[in-house]
Amino acid sequence: MSEASTSDTSTTDSVSLNEASERLGVHYMTAYRYIRTGRLAAEKRGGQWYVRLEDLAEVQTGRTTQTKRSDILPSRVEERLLASDENGTFQILEDAMAAGASADEIYLDLLVPALTNIGQRWHDGELEIAEEHVATATAIRVISRVGNRIGSRRGRSRGTIVLASVAQDHHLLPTAMMKDLLGSRGFEVSDLGANTPALSIASLAASKPDLVAIGISATTEGAEVATIDTILEIRAILPTIPIVVGGSAFKDEESIRELGDCIPSTSARHALEIFDRLHGEQRAN
What is the CATH number of the domain that holds 104? Predict the structure, then answer.
């Protein structure tokens, strides 16, 4: 008798993943996807997955077949990102979208908390820099796929917003996520990405006739000088255009105000509210 058979007969409260898939009437890989995305609880023993009969019964009766938004946690996203599991991460987010989650919820309630915790764990020495880089690289690929699913809102454009991270800030994710969120709100977005020279931001913004605002992100410690230079460069070309500044490089709203003529943003949600308000004010004028 094989080791797998012995395990199946000796463990009366659980079955192998192969048997679980048969009982569910789904392909083995579908059942495995349930495990990977958290829809089906399982444990690995001797190189094989086993499912408790109690957990299997929940799926069989339909109580967990359809993912609930409340069941989708940032910790699951974090786990898959650290495992460099692009497909698994995307499947979790896709399940959330199928359950009715908005673009804001996908990015701000799932991805951002997961990435923030990964960054904090690296800062505290719990994770190696390689692990943090793997998770970030995986997130970049996942965001590209999620962005294609979200798409831009149809209809008349609400105007253009230019986004960029300041010089010497090599983080792509903040502006990439903001681009998708603003696109879902009907804005045209030009995202210059990471480590952008101040003159490049100012020059591109000046070329946009329907410019609503410029969004500047700074997440690297010590980015104050680069941010001040960016604000001054923009102001030399565009003296009145709103400049929204935010990012984890700044401790609070007051520290951003001290940088110069800009509008401080304390979070991604706050930034979205500011851009919506600026559009409204522009239309009113």
Answer: 1.10.1240.10
Domain membership of residue 226 as a residue range: 160-284
Q: Does the residue 120 lie in any domain?
A: yes
Q: How far is CA 203 from CA 67, 100, 246, in A?
A: 46, 40, 21
Confidence of residue 37 (pLDDT cuts 50, 70, 90): low
Classify 207 in phi/psi space as left (phi over 0), alpha (psi -120 to 50) or beta. alpha
Residue 24 lies in a domain: yes
Same domain as 182, residue 98 = no
User: Does residue 223 surpass a pLDDT of 90?
Assistant: yes
Under a CB-based contact definition with an 8 Å cutoff, are residues 15 and 50 in contact?
A: yes
**Parallel/antiparallel/unpaired status of strands 263-265 and 243-246:** parallel
Contact between 165 and 194 under an 8 Å Cβ cutoff? The reply is: yes
Residue with tokens 């970030």: 136
Domains identified in the chain, total number: 3
This prediction's pTM = 0.76
The per-residue DSSP string of 141-155 comes to HHHHHHHHHH-PPPS
